[in-house]
Write a structure and sequence with these properties.
Purple Acid Phosphatase, chain A, domain 2, 5-stranded mixed sheet, 24% helix, globular, alpha/beta
């Protein structure tokens, strides 16, 4: 099975369309969405409409911290006032169809588990320490992930592939248990110092992983930002920071 993994689209339609065009080179079976479809970008409703019409089945569709904060109305955990202001703006422009999609078509828990080809997968926006607000990193990928063969997560906007080998008593695997951690990066707000839209493709049988990025019309997306939101979110798109 070929999985397309997207995270942190952040209402960037230009980036999302470029990714969907680029993935035509793969035979995608199912789509995994790790959350934060909305906020920090100017077209949340259009983004959701594209996802509704996507040409392959959506297997997982998680809330991220932005869906949770905006729909719950609790913005206190954002690190800046400009972030809270943007989230208030996003809530104001979300139409009823988009709100219904977020509440009914997405998983409010922010995580789920699946089995592919006999391997256990965890899909989560953040981490087991904090489902919505804390990213997985080499420093916090502790023993609580040992039961999983693959962990797919978002939130940090930084793509990575990491294999961790936990100590076990299994002599058949020479006392080790492998867990693969994958973050596809962000489609619409990359922060890996590369402005290109990021995504991942996983072959669950052969167990290969492609971390990809694709150019999109950053300038066109920037022209949509008005004076009613902080220009920080417009400027950061240029350098992927």
């Amino acid at each position: 099975m070929i999985l397309l993994v997207l995270s942190d689209i952040h209402a960037n339609v230009s980036a999302l369309i470029s990714v969907l065009n680029d993935v035509r080179k793969y035979s995608i079976d199912k789509l995994i969405l790790l959350g934060d479809h909305i906020d920090y970008g100017m077209r949340p409703n259009e983004t959701i409409e594209i996802l509704k019409k996507i040409p392959f089945p959506i297997e997982i569709n998680l809330w991220g911290n932005h869906e949770k904060a905006i729909m719950d109305g609790d913005l206190e955990r954002f690190s800046s006032e400009r972030g809270r202001e943007f989230s208030r703006f996003t809530f104001q422009i979300l139409n009823n169809k988009s709100k219904e999609y977020i509440n009914k078509e997405m998983c409010m828990h922010g995580y789920t588990e699946k089995t592919y080809n006999g391997k256990q997968y965890l899909m989560i926006h953040g981490s087991l320490e904090d489902t919505f607000w804390k990213s997985i990193s080499p420093e916090n990928s502790g023993e609580n992930y040992i039961k999983y063969d693959f962990v797919l997560s978002g939130h940090s906007h930084i793509p990575y592939y990491m294999e961790k080998y936990y100590k076990t008593d299994n002599i058949n695997t020479r006392g080790q248990k492998r867990t693969v951690f994958i973050n596809p990066g962000s489609v619409g707000q990359p922060r890996n110092h590369n402005p290109r839209a990021c995504y991942a493709v996983i072959n669950t049988e052969a167990e290969w992983v492609h971390l990809n990025n694709v150019s999109y019309d950053v300038k066109a997306e920037q022209t949509l930002y008005g004076n009613n939101v902080n220009e920080f979110y417009k400027i950061r798109l240029e350098n992927g920071i």
